[in-house]
Amino acid sequence: MIYYAVRAAKESVSSTMTSKKPFSAVQNKNRAAILAAALETFSAHGFRGTRLEQIANNAGMSKPNVIYYFPNKEAIFVTLLNSHIDKWLAPLREIDPDGEPLEQVIEYVVKKVRMSADMPRESRLFANEIVQGAPRLKESMNSDLKGLFDRTVNILEKWMKEGKLAEVPADHLIYSIWATTQHYADFEAQIEVLSGTPEKIVASAEAYLINMYTKLLKP
User: Fold this and answer.
1) In order of start, what are the domains of the chain with their CATH numbers?
2) Do residues 182 and 101 make contact, with C-beta atoms less than 8 angstroms apart?
3) Which partner from 119, 175, 177, 191 sits 20 to 30 angstroms from 24, CA to CA?
């Protein structure tokens, strides 16, 4: 049932984009305001706990005005996910198979820590979707993420076989990096109570993780 709702939302967004004239500067500004308000609302309340009225109120617009740009909250959510998944996967794509192996892994870890500090709402949006079984990301995960994951595993395993990295399960290494870096965003409230905001502790988090993964992977 969710699959058909998501497909309808995607088709609705696509139809809206192709059937209307290009947005004006004002319309683009309004659309950006809706997406910003939706990101704040979805990351705080999740998809199920968010109502279109909340997004409209947070955007300073009426509900009919929001519907002019997006037919329903599903369409807004899908648009947000699609726009942020590329940003979220970018550091993984940037791992250079011809680069120095340990430096490439450490650079990836640092980028992920900084993204958690700079983009906590986007991280929670993604995490909430995954926890719900990824009904709106199945297609992207089966194509973009799976292909990128397999590529990265192959790169890491090649480096390990060449003796350039210590041998560990490459898939679990990637999961571990995700867990140790995205935790700072996904559990921001807990981190803030215990250690301060992710922005304030990002330097110490980087130092700790660099040291940990260097010791783990140094051949």
Assistant:
1) 2-76 (1.10.10.60), 94-217 (1.10.357.10)
2) no
3) 119
